[in-house]
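Note to self: the last two entries modelled the partners one at a time, which told us nothing about the interface. This time every component goes in together.
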Amino acid sequence: GQQLNQSPQSMFIQEGEDVSMNCTSSSIFNTWLWYKQDPGEGPVLLIALYKAGELTSNGRLTAQFGITRKDSFLNISASIPSDVGIYFCAGQLSGSARQLTFGSGTQLTVLP
Amino acid sequence: NAGVTQTPKFRILKIGQSMTLQCTQDMNHNYMYWYRQDPGMGLKLIYYSVGAGITDKGEVPNGYNVSRSTTEDFPLRLELAAPSQTSVYFCASMRDTEAFFGQGTRLTVV
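The predicted structure of the combined assembly is written out below.
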């Protein structure tokens, strides 16, 4: 099956710093998604990307759908304490009952 | 807005016991999914359903069963619990590309 390699596995950053994480796949996806999971909660959608090369922002978050359709990155600018959590990338193929393939997650810790 | 509701939130099972994890959604979504999340891993798909009466296996279906008699409900059944099923289980429903997750059920099998 498809596999997503997400890196880094964890990050410790100072408040105010920018963060970057990425995902690469062994196969192409039609849609890339980025989710955030707070402790004790289910993941929540942050950004959805639908076209190769697409660059989309949501507040301090920016994500890009790679040209090859096999990768995506997420940037968080000027991090704040509430950015703490686990960030997951997910890929989706059209016509696959909308199944999502998830990366292994990036655990983000923001230090004051 | 209730969204996706899972019960119970926590459960400890003995090896060989059975249980049903409940999942209900009030958004009238046809697509529903069960995932398990193990530490340091992403979410692995157990079973999914594209509508009432239709279910199919995901990546890790062994040891589980599901049913979908209504659009709202998608219970996950463990018949003979094993320690390898210790995990956090998430139910989700989907509208287009956005998946809405429940809060999860933390299951420990001892």
